[in-house]
Amino acid sequence: MKASRFRCLNAPAVVPRTSHASLPSSRAFATAAPEPLATEHKPPRPRTTFQDRLNNGPALSSFITTPPTSLPASEALELRTALVGPAGRKKEITRLPEWLKTPIPDNSNFKKIKADLRGLNLHTVCEEARCPNISDCWGGNDKAAATATIMLMGDTCTRGCRFCSVKTSRAPPPLDPHEPEHTAEALSRWGLGYVVLTSVDRDDLADGGASHFAETIMKIKQKAPNMLVEALTGDYAGDLEMVERVAQSGLDVYAHNVETVEELTPTVRDRRAGFRQSLRVLDRAKKVSEGRLITKTSIMLGLGETEEQLWEALRELRKVDVDVVTFGQYMRPTKRHMKVYEYVTPATFELWRQRALDMGFLYCASGPLVRSSYKAGEAFIENVLKKRAIQSATAVVDARVNVTDSI
Predict the structure, then answer these.
(1) In angstroms, rounded to a whole number, what is the distance separating the alpha carbons of residues 136 and 138?
(2) Which among 50, 111, 220, 372 counts the fewest CB atoms within 10 Å?
(3) Closest CA to 261 of 302, 305, 295, 296
(4) What angle do CA 322, 373, 364 make, to 5 degrees?
């Protein structure tokens, strides 16, 4: 027993039997990649004739830019229809008139402005509202000739107007406290002579964002005192104290859009907006500035308004001493928005422009593609403001001379 026990304690360890005795002793992953095989270096393939023709061929702009074609006046103003949809369920639609078609943006200055805006986390109503003039306004020969309407307080609105494509939410993200400084820095860097600021409606805020708006204007004036600022504001839910806060922040033009005639307001705008409420906003901005500010509004055509309704809207605007009015064609942003009732011809827009001027408006921009911040109107208003500033300075000098002579 002792010998047997001695032999057991000193015997070599017993190796258990296994059916995989041929496996290597080192462990490896089941999906281990095989070692790369040594391959000879092959010279690159020679360029083909097709590749040369492709690289030297037309650019994207050659396909998206159509050569201008001159049509007779009768054909150019004719509305065309088309049948769309699967067989058996086709429906007739009205095609976009020729006078409403615009080129696709393809400009180095357009790309530069867009890059600057994204770098500073700024938004524009040009993009959010899908403005058809974006290639025209952003595509100037230099930044001084370009116009971009900066949209403050984010890109999400608390209201849901049936014509507008801006995103909506009951609880938008909080305000960016650095936005006033970033906006002022960007605009002073561009060296613009005239800038338009607008904003989404923020009914979730106690002051509707009026303090944020006013702070942005004041910072712009600090960095660029000679820059003319137009503020396109909301109605602040009828709180006229907030209107006064923005109107007294140092801006030059106070704009607020009535959008349409009074009869169509309930079906076109959000239920919290109102034609009379908008008139009170424009009236208070004019009175609190003692007539110094230029007041401005915009009306869309093609929503189903009548001539008499338009006449009445213009008369109401003149009663509150609005200086500038613009007319533009309503264009349906998506199928979720209200349909276009009619495409108004350029001749009709010209007719309403002349009627507005005859009623005493200081300026009227009217055309199918005109929007409330259209740059043609800004150029005129800029000249008006500069003339007023010169007249005011001359009046001050004359008053001082008269005082000196009397002494």
Answers:
(1) 6
(2) 50
(3) 305
(4) 45
